[in-house]
Amino acid sequence: MIVGLEDIVCPPLTAFAVYSRINSPKEIIVYPKHAHGGFTQNEDKKIKFLLKE
């Protein structure tokens, strides 16, 4: 999960609440100076995750 701390569309508090409820292996990446979207830095991680069998 990726969270931008300046996101006013999906406030970080809601993302952290959802994250805490996930009962499976998980990882959270926090970007203090990002708002909603535009997280292209992690595209390779997303693709690798989706290609796992």
Give a short overview.
This protein is an alpha+beta fold. It has helices at 12-21, 43-51; strands at 2-4, 29-31.
Total E-strand runs = 2
Distance between the termini: 19 Å
Unreliable parts: none
The side-by-side strand order for the widest beta sheet comes to 1-2
Q: Tell me the fraction of residues in β-strands, as a range.
A: 5-15%
Q: Roughly how much helix do the residues carry, as a percent range?
A: 25-40%
Major sheet size, sense and barrel closure: 2 strands, parallel
Features:
single chain; 36% helix; two-stranded parallel ribbon; alpha+beta; 2 helices
Could you walk me through the main structural features you see in this protein, from its secondary elements to its overall organization?
This protein has 53 residues and is an alpha+beta fold. It has one domain. It contains two helices and two strands, in the order βαβα. The chain has helices spanning 12-21, 43-51; strands at residues 2-4, 29-31. Strands 1-2 form a two-stranded parallel sheet.
